[in-house]
Design a protein that fits this description.
seven-stranded mixed β-sheet; FAD/NAD(P)-binding domain; D-Amino Acid Oxidase, Chain A, domain 2; 10 helices; single chain; 413 residues; alpha/beta; six-stranded mixed β-sheet
Length: 413
């Protein structure tokens, strides 16, 4: 069938996860009314739907904190605007240090929290036992409880951002795939979709794991790669896992946990997280396990011993599920946000580095401010798309660097 032009718009955001949907809302609320949010499936149905979604505020990479704080502000605003619930649960995060190295790191985290006015306090062993009944406190050397931290449902967050964007005048196109980015003289002029051509001077690439498949059409490499994340969900035991018990960060076990409706959701940092070429990934939402099936239990055996030491009743506790998803990691653990030098109209909003849901509101705001060429609310230099040189984002070597970044990460979820 001959190509046809279905519209001419001010900006197109490709990918309706939390970051893309947030970006569409931030653009529309700032007056760019002719904004189109496109997804080849449905809103929030891709890797967003598999996110553990810990919204930990304090980060050792301090440049992330203002973006996460912005997300918290955005959640209040869009829930009020839309009347929708994002599933936000304010339960706080308990940071546990069980070694001298972790004590030093936790002291640094507390200092950062104080600097950014993030509420925190050290709590007693007795209070840990009360708050987290499943936890063995015998190895604890130091604690810090960040009381304002929350977790939420990333699928609901993406849909609430999208509904808010629509209320501000944006258009949502679901089940429409962008096949090609159209450009001329190093300028974006539109996109070719499965439903026709849409003309536009602005394209925001927010398709996560598949971002480079689009950007490389323009010879623009984005420094990030798809890396597996993995977590488990136990059976429901209300006496061990109260519904409002805090999230727990355990750097000595390279583990984190959060409540899950009377069960416990917990994740581990693998020593060498599998990474993928984007062409290897299923483009449809699915529950397939990424990697060898035996990994679901081998990882617990190989890397979970320290976590199990915190959890005396682990072997008596049944497991309901093991879930794998994809995070887009960068070698340095920072987001990838912004335009590419000498190419007009193309912006990246990806490289979530394991905290894309938490930072989604801030990422969306930064991108909107860059597009509209207005002052930025936060420092963005560390997120530059061109901060690495001479790399192939599809190569095994570069993808391994991104995997290493996830494997070494200790803060947050």
């Amino acid at each position: 069938m001959k190509d046809f032009i279905i519209d001419t718009v001010d900006a197109i955001v490709i990918g309706a996860g939390t970051i893309g949907s947030s970006t569409a809302w931030h653009l529309a609320k700032r007056g760019l009314k002719n904004v189109v949010l496109i997804d080849r499936n449905t809103i929030g149905s891709g890797n967003t739907s598999k996110a553990a979604s810990l919204m930990t505020l304090v980060r050792t990479k301090e440049e992330l904190i203002p973006l996460i704080q912005e997300t918290y502000r955005n959640i209040d605003e869009i829930e009020l605007l839309t009347g929708e619930n994002t599933g936000k649960n304010k339960v706080g995060t308990l940071h546990i240090a069980s070694s001298e190295e972790s004590v030093a790191n936790l002291e640094k985290i507390v200092s950062i929290a104080n600097k950014h006015h993030i509420k925190n306090r050290e709590i007693s062993i007795e209070e840990v036992k009360e708050k987290v009944p499943w936890f063995d406190t015998s190895s604890i050397l130091k604690t810090s409880f960040m009381e304002d931290d929350a977790y939420l449902d990333a699928y609901l967050l993406a849909n609430t951002f999208a509904k808010a964007a629509k209320l501000e005048g944006a258009t949502i196109m679901q089940n429409a795939e962008v096949i090609e980015l159209l450009s001329k003289d190093h300028k974006i002029i539109g996109v070719q979709t499965t439903k026709g051509i849409i003309k536009t001077p602005i394209v925001i690439d927010a398709v996560g794991a598949w971002s480079n498949l689009l950007s490389l059409q323009l010879n623009i490499p984005i420094p990030m790669a798809p890396v597996r994340s993995i977590y488990w969900i136990t059976e429901n035991i209300d006496t061990l896992f109260p519904k409002n018990h805090p999230m727990v960060v355990m750097p000595d076990a390279m583990a984190y946990s959060r409540p899950e409706n009377g069960a416990l959701l917990f994740g581990l940092r693998e020593e060498n997280s599998p990474h993928f070429h984007p062409n290897e990934l299923n483009t449809k939402p699915n529950s397939d396990f990424l990697g060898p099936k035996n990994d679901a239990w081998d990882i617990l055996e190989n890397y979970g011993k320290d976590f199990i030491n915190y959890f005396p009743k682990f072997e008596e506790t049944g497991m309901k599920n093991c879930i794998t998803g994809i995070s887009t990691y960068t070698p340095d653990g920072y987001y990838t946000i912004g335009s590419f030098p000498n190419f007009k109209g193309f912006f990246a909003a990806t490289g979530c580095a394991g905290c894309g849901v938490a930072g989604s509101g801030g990422i969306g705001r930064l991108v909107a401010e860059m597009v509209l060429e207005i002052p930025l609310f936060a420092e963005a230099g560390v997120f530059r798309i061109d901060r690495f040189s001479d790399f192939d984002p599809m190569s095994e070597q570069f993808r391994q660097l991104c995997s290493d970044s996830r494997s070494k990460k200790k803060d947050g979820g």
